[in-house]
Design brief:
six-stranded mixed sheet; about 35% helix
Length: about 325
Amino acid sequence: MSGTAAIEVKEVSAAYGSTTALDAVSLSVPPGSHFALLGPNGAGKTTLVNILCTLRRPDRGSAVVAGSDVVRRPSQARRSIGVVFQDSSLDDRLTAWENLEFHGLVYGMPTRPRRGLIETMLDLVELGDWTHEIVRSFSGGMRRRLEIARALLHEPRILFLDEPTVGLDAQTRQRIWHYLEQLRRDRGLTVLTTTHYIEEVESADQICIIDHGRIIAQGTPDALKSEHGHSWLHVLPRDAAAKAAMLARLPQAHALGANALAIPADDRQDSDAILAQYRDQLAEVRFQPPTLESVFLSLTGRELRDRADGQRSADRAAGRRGGRS
């Protein structure tokens, strides 16, 4: 790994009791890049981010962030990073300005540049009109944008985003990524994000797929699709008997959730034969060309979309609310 990497992780392992969260993970993140950790809930993404943010020590291995070892020089590492956690950490009893002011004081920022940057960051995330409003009155999207402003206030070299847009509507997610891309261009900011929204990492420079605490593939989106992606038939059998019959006759099929199946479809003749044989037993058929979702399915045998029903409900509710975002 390059000595000029923004982040270097070597053979990092971590466990919670008898449960392994990370198993000898190694990776390197170039400066100024957008690096994505893609994996289902429980894959080890948040544990790795917590180690890189100095919130916990690795059980084995080493990690260096912006040139500082996270175990030996945690204070120096923290000054070089900004973090947006999966769960909100704003004080909702304070105003937007007061949340940023407190953050700037914690980092020892001098008064005049601190206050100038607070105004700049609030304008960047389109919260200038809400500067002196109590955060308790903000929507989920507004809070997320304020957290990003806070994480960037002290001008870090690296920004960590742990599931930054969970529960937000598609429009708000798009706006957040627009801000971040602008900052990458303007500041050379390095962004490491964890997510299971595949559409958010299609434009990442590098994607690292992690599952059960181990890295199973890494590369550019196009390289991953080329090497591991497959075409699939996604089918919905009419009933449980039809599904059981297809699974018995098609050992290459993967069960998706309670009802659907995914069948490899790289061979067009095989696909046509399957459809001809089972078409009367299918309620729905969808062809999927190689995607990052199909890469994950090919590597793990299951879909990435493993969010709990509550999260899906939150996403739908966020999309219905509209208004402030």
